[in-house]
Every structure is written in structure tokens, then in C-alpha cells.
Amino acid sequence: MGSAYRAAIERWEFEQARAVGEPTGRTVRPHVRRAHAHLYWTGKGREVPRVRFLLPIEVRGGVAGEEAEGARAIEIR
């Protein structure tokens, strides 16, 4: 039973495979990815784990829909 399921999954993955760089048609709206820790394998043979902290990263640049296009001065009494 399990081997038939595995074979079906492998067959599906093969059928769905795309060439490297082939567009999927998927897009995401501009946003800022949160700051986070990321594990990189470094050194000869990539044997040494190293954790680095990544700052917030803009994804797809530009201004998100909810953001104002520029700074505005608002008079407050």
C-alpha cells in the first residue's frame, strides 16, 4: 500500500516538474519580510554551521497597497 502511494507521489512530482527558470505565473504583492535568524552551512565541504541574523527584507520592492505614497504633514490643534 505505502509503495503504491510513494510511486504515485513520485509520478506526480515528475509530471509537475518545470525547467529551471520557467515562470510559474505566481506573484506576491510587495511586503517586508520580518527580521529572522538563518542557518548557513559554510567552510570547505559546507560542514560548519553558522547562524546569521537577517534584517527586514523588502520583497518585490515598491510601496505596499496600505502604505502612503509619501510623508504628509497634518496640522493638529
In short:
By secondary structure, this protein is of the alpha+beta class.
Mind explaining what this structure looks like?
The chain has a domain at 30-61. The protein is 19% helix and 26% strand. It has one helix at residues 2-16, and strands at residues 31-33, 36-42, 48-54, 57-59. Strands 1-4 form a two-stranded antiparallel ribbon. A two-stranded antiparallel ribbon has the order 2-3. The protein is extended and about 75 Å long.
Question: How would you describe this structure in keywords?
Answer:
single chain, 1 helix, two-stranded antiparallel sheet, 77 residues, 19% helix
Tell me about the largest β-sheet.
Answer: 2 strands, antiparallel
In the predicted model, the low-confidence regions spanning at least 5 consecutive residues are none
> Tally of extended strands?
4
Which geometry do the CA atoms define? extended
Overall radius of gyration: 22 Å
Question: What is the element layout, followed by pairings?
Answer:
Elements: H1 2-16, E1 31-33, E2 36-42, E3 48-54, E4 57-59
Antiparallel strand pairs: 1-4, 2-3
